[in-house]
Amino acid sequence: MMQQLIIYPLLFQLFLSIVLMFFWNKINAQKVISITGSIIAVLLSSYVFYYVWENGTQKVNAGSWDAPFGIVFVADTLAVTLVLLTALSGLAVSIFSAGSVIKDRLRFGYFPIFHFLLLGLTGAFLTGDLFNLYVWFEIIIISSFVLITIGGEKAQLEGAVKYFTLNILASTIFLTAIAVLYGLTGSLNMADLAGKVAAVENRGLVEVAAILFLIGFGTKASIFPLYFWLPASYHTPPAAVSAIFGGLLTKVGVYALIRVFTLIFVGDVFLGEILMVLAILTIFSGGVGALVQNNVRKVFSYLIICHIGYMIAGLGMFTEIAISGVIFYLIHDIMVKTNLFMVSGIIFKIKSSNSMRALGGFYANYPNLSLLIFIPLFSLVGIPPLSGFWPKISLIGEGFATENYWTVAAIVFASFITLVIIAKLWAEVFWKDAKEIPEKPKFEYFSDISKAKKTQFILPIVFLSLISLYIGFGAEHIQLLSSRIANELMNSEQYIDTVLNNS
Amino acid sequence: MKTIILRTASNYLLPVLLLFSIFILLRGHYLPGGGFVGGLIAAIAFVLHSFANGLKNTKSLLRFHPGFLMPAGLALSFFSGLSPIIFAGDPFMTGLWYHGHVPVLGSVGSALFFDMGVYLVVVGVTLTIIFTISEAP
């Protein structure tokens, strides 16, 4: 039973959603099950992480079909790290949902679908098969579509249509890319493809497949010019849903890009340059977009795009240190972005508004809460020693080493513009004098809710802020982890050997 | 659509269609068929019954909300996938087979239970969707 350890986090999420479906109408029971289950999922993922850290890459042949033919699940250090981060944000958002999502939404199966989403994410990180990756992406899309529309407000449906159209288009392109690759090599196993793609003589078609993958995953990761669905939809659903979307959905696109471009299409100079140009444009368009927004959640949405640029830039440079910077940034970003959308939820709960111009006076009224929110906000900016600072050292240093001065300029610009935006947000929302916002009659304000519910709002933010602080102050550990991941990614022989060795 | 012909016919068609759906389900292992198609046919049986006799009668015939079949079917499929881990120590979804001849069925394995789970989920989903739509004013 221990050989299959790595797929237990995945099976557990599935089990959890099935159990939750049996309690369809019992919302309070669902809350308890979801939170307890998420805690168990964190423990389980931590153990899997520890196991893989100690014993190296593990794999499971699903259905006992041997590697290049059947579906394999592979847990290298990158996969288990992301599975652990998924479980951590899953736990935070699960607690936050219990407090913040209204009954009318919970009644329609919010929690089961939420755990189906986590199942899809966990599966996407663990699978070693391209078509299976597509299937997990479908599970992610379908459950996210339910989550984004649940409640059925007009704005929500409008956002959901944009979200769904572009994402389903991206999936189709991804599927086309798989078809092209399968036609060329006759294989879908990523490790097997690594060898076979390198041996294909028709390089033009390989390039086409690579670009199709870039477009498919790029849309999901919201890189320039395919990001428009993101700011159009992420501010519409409840904050808890935005939190899990903002933290993980775009990152799974980045993960897929990292996996495909370090394993299958390796060392393509043309592709590296395209990635670099796209990264610079992504950084600029996201940064400038965030600067002109007034809605707090739209600001955060544009900042997601801006910071995706960092990771794509690192991937474009394609050196071991740059990749380690990307991984470090990925780890930091998942925690901080999940946290920030929960922060936007708590701001909305207190004042029933997310407009920066209308808000104000938080620091005077809620000093402790403001200091708590200070941590994720300024981790995002990357003021040393908070967590956003460290990965930029690797990225900027490597930009100089590989003489990509434009990329360095873009990264510096992005850090600067993030600082400006967050400083503006801090000044407007926290320091400015409070303004009178007309009270909404049916709105349940933060000051009216019970103490237990307040805890459910605050606790996840504290939890993720502590992790962010750990990433900042324990940067040495995270750097060790990301260097090891980068090393594994750059020397993919070990991954390939583990997958294809069926003895 | 409450014609006497349809009403009389649907009473006989319901068991026949249900039997046919089970036949399709069992046929699925080596030949065209399986849980998905079987589930659709079973759902059609109930839909036809509700056309002829009204939604209320079909619901009282079913006794429970068809939505319950979704988690039940999922659980069945899940545990059939899990059974090799529990009983044999093999990876998830490995087929476990009973090596003996079972009359009518042929051979029985964990794949059959997986398909039965799919069958239940499909019946549950289809009926939930159709009942919800026809309930709407």
Report on this model:
Chain A has 503 residues and is mostly helical. Chain A has helices at 8-22, 27-55, 77-100, 103-106, 110-126, 130-149, 154-185, 190-199, 203-221, 229-233, 239-263, 269-292, 296-317, 320-351, 362-365, 367-381, 389-401, 405-431, 451-473, 475-490, 493-500; strands at 58-61, 72-75. In chain A, α2 (27-55) packs antiparallel against α3, α13 packs antiparallel against α18 (405-431) and α19 (451-473) packs across α20 (475-490). The longest helix of chain A has 32 residues, at 154-185. Chain B has one domain. Helices cover 71% and strands 7% of the residues of chain B. The two termini of chain B are 17 Å apart. The A-B interface holds A 1, 3-4, 7, 11, 14-15, 18, 21-22, 24, 60-64 and B 67, 70-71, 74-75, 78, 82, 84-85, 89-95.
Write the layout of secondary structure elements.
The complex is a heterodimer of chains A (503) and B (137).
Chain A: H1 8-22, H2 27-55, E1 58-61, E2 72-75, H3 77-100, H4 103-106, H5 110-126, H6 130-149, H7 154-185, H8 190-199, H9 203-221, H10 229-233, H11 239-263, H12 269-292, H13 296-317, H14 320-351, H15 362-365, H16 367-381, H17 389-401, H18 405-431, H19 451-473, H20 475-490, H21 493-500
Chain B: H1 4-27, H2 35-53, H3 55-62, H4 69-88, E1 97-102, E2 106-109, H5 110-135
Antiparallel strand pairs in B: 1-2
